[in-house]
């Protein structure tokens, strides 16, 4: 990835996107870890809540 050829604005945009992407990924990993600790009944209840 050649950051040198980007304008300062493009670099900022890319960094902002990267931060957002990493935040989303961290949130998803935290969510998955939390869901792994749940019992099957709790998982079913949460899935139902998400669908509603």
Tell me the fraction of residues in β-strands, as a range.
Answer: under 5%
Helix segment count?
Answer: 2
Number of strands: 0
Could you give the order of the helices and strands? Answer: HH
Specify the biggest β-sheet.
Answer: none
* Low-confidence spans: none
- Compute the average pLDDT: 86
Q: What structural class results from the helix and strand content?
A: mainly alpha
The geometry reads as elongated
Intertermini distance: 42 Å
The quaternary structure here is single chain
Radius of gyration: 18 Å
Helix amount, in percent?
over 70%
Question: Can you tell me about this structure?
Answer:
It is built from two helices and no strands. It is mainly α and 52 residues long. Helices cover 81% and strands 0% of the residues. The protein has helices at residues 8-37, 40-51.
Keywords:
mainly alpha, 2 helices, elongated
Give the SSE map.
Blueprint: H1 8-37, H2 40-51
In short:
The chain has helices at residues 8-37, 40-51.
């Amino acid at each position: 990835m050649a950051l040198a050829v980007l304008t300062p604005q493009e670099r900022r945009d890319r960094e902002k996107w990267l931060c957002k992407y990493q935040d989303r990924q961290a949130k998803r990993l935290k969510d998955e870890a939390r869901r792994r600790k749940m019992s099957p009944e709790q998982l079913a209840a949460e899935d139902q809540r998400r669908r509603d």
